[in-house]
Design brief:
The protein has four helices and eight strands; from the N terminus they run H-E-H-E-E-E-H-E-H-E-E-E. By secondary structure, the protein is α+β, with helices and mostly antiparallel strands.
Length: about 160
């Protein structure tokens, strides 16, 4: 592999499989990007994390560069979902976001089997998620002061890579 995927070690763990240090790094990254960088005051720790799987991408030194939360069907949406998709500033500019989404879709299939995946995407990222098989499936709506849309990736496209 080339680019970001070549230097990132991916691990997908249930909540109880996260070490305290890993959990702290995840919450620190989510807060740094979603709350501070995006200047969005919201309740990141929404109570869903214990029921989810967590995809972590570390570099060779162990620094957390990428993260996504895999949400089982029926918890956030009727379908399974990928959320809290985030790359650390240190990992940007190397297509790490695309590697993260590819890995997230694969990990979700490995955990719960092939199925549709619904996401609540920031509206300006529709093209990004479109590269991963997601199609806009709702009108634009506001969530925490940021325009969002729901996007759906049908089950038959599971396993497809960008």
């Amino acid at each position: 592999m080339t680019g970001a995927a070549a230097y990132v070690h991916w691990r997908c763990l249930p909540f109880e499989g996260l070490s305290l240090a890993e959990l702290y790094a995840v919450l620190q990254l989510r807060s740094a990007v979603f709350v501070v960088e995006q200047t969005c005051v919201f309740q990141d720790m929404d109570g869903l994390d214990p029921a989810c799987h967590h995809l972590l991408g570390h570099d060779a030194s162990g620094q957390l560069l990428a993260y996504a939360r895999l949400v089982p069907q029926g918890l956030a949406f009727a379908e399974a979902s990928v959320g809290r998709v985030v790359t650390a500033p240190a990992g940007r500019g190397r297509a790490l976001g695309h590697a993260l989404m590819s890995q997230a879709c694969i990990a979700l299939i490995n955990v719960w089997g092939p199925q549709p995946i619904r996401i609540g995407a920031q509206a300006h990222l529709q093209d990004f998620y479109g590269h991963h098989g997601f199609a806009t499936d709702s009108a634009e709506y506001m969530e925490d002061g940021i325009a969002h849309v729901e996007m759906l990736r049908p089950a038959q496209t599971q396993g497809a890579t960008p």
